[in-house]
Specification:
This protein is of the alpha/beta class. Helix content is about 45%, strand content about 10%.
Amino acid sequence: MFGGDEFNAHLLLRYGYTHDLFERFSQVVYKGVELPLTLLRPYHVLIRDFIDRKREDESFVERKRKQWSFRSMKDVQRQLQRLPPQREDWGKDASRDMILLCGQYVDFALSELSDRRVLLLHSNPYDLRALQGKSLPSTFEVYSLHERLLRSSASQQARAELFALIDEALADRRGAAEHEIFSMPRFPEWMRSCIGQGIVLVDLLEGVLKQYPVGVIMDHSELIYPGSILSLLARSYGLPFINVQNHLTSDASMIPTRATHYAVWGPSMTQWLVERGIDESSIVEVGSLRLEHNERRIQKTREQLLRECCAKPAPFVLVYTTESYPESINFTVMRWMRKLVRMLPDVQVIVKPHPSDKLSYESFVSERIHLAPSGFDLQDILNASDCVATISSTTAIEGAMLKKGIIVLQPELPYDYHINYNGYPYFLDRGQAGPVVHSARELVDCIAALLTREGESEAVVQAGQQFLRQMVFTDDRTPSQRMGGLVKSLLDNECRQAYIRTEGPNHASTNESLLPDVEGN
């Protein structure tokens, strides 16, 4: 759902050159960690312009397709996972009873782990913001990786040894000088800079695991540090690492993954991971920690919102949530909205721009098109709507959670290296989340049907609810309770010998044996 089945030229080149990086610099290992494996995000940024230029060169792509053996994302996961050898088996040590998690999960920890030892990692501004003002139990500690990183530097000996290995790999007779990426003038210095920081991060994070009795690690990303390094260290030391879904995801933000367990929102994510070669027994559907308290944020009513921005009564309110697509895309949708309110005077449109959306919408503001007013939370605005319109935003799920209908906007979307390289923007359409519109005329017809056709509104809401059931698992427990059950099960002594295996590509025990009370068996 979160990426098409076709293994296209973009994916072939992106992951083929990733394979080359891993292979060519496989000897650049520090404390058991292949450092090139931790460079996925910066490396994909480095090669972006080259991939964008070459992906439409059919003869070049075909030549590379013969060179690399990738035919699917499952192949990518299998070949690029590259698990490190297990050096220790700390997972069997019952005294390792501390949970290491990023600061963004502090509310979950306070709710479900207040009786446990917890180490909260501050790595970025989001962690700091989540931790500020929180009263923590005496069993909780905070480790500021961010501050330690600013004060630390790699040892001269380690730098010299690894930089020599880099130079050796670049001078290898296998043809680095002819390689399309490694021959870039800036590549050697880029590689040394990244490896220098990698040395420091491995030192700090391995130090955390040795200083604190960590028994379980949970993070929401393996694409960037600390998760990119912690997942490898967890494998080295025989500790469970839980990759917790925090956003809608796609191939480049997750594959390859080395977690031992996956805490996902619902069935669609489970299916997506299984299609990419992840053992289903390592996946637990917990719902969304990120979205579980959305309704608590609703403080204002529909009437208050309409008084703030609408001069006339509003029989139908459509909220359009924008995304960080090129400005031309959001401009096109706004022209649709302008035609909609001109053709259907009973409709009021409220535009909620994405934080990364730089388009100015002032020129579109009118008597019936409004920018979301300040002082109103996103949940206030979604709750005040009759329907939520978006291309591929998580707000579609959030709207469905409030029992709002979803209108799926599908303007023509150009290829984009980061946001439209594998069909991700079409997942709401493929998931049948609601009526799909491709033009201003279709949008007008869709809303007119909602206003005039008996039963149409209920059918649209029902479609959204069916979609929601596929996206977000629910039962009589909260996501935090289910997540807490998973973490505590992994810390139970009787489970310690079952959850880590390193001889195959996927190494988690089954939900049934590991998580009886989490899965309700």
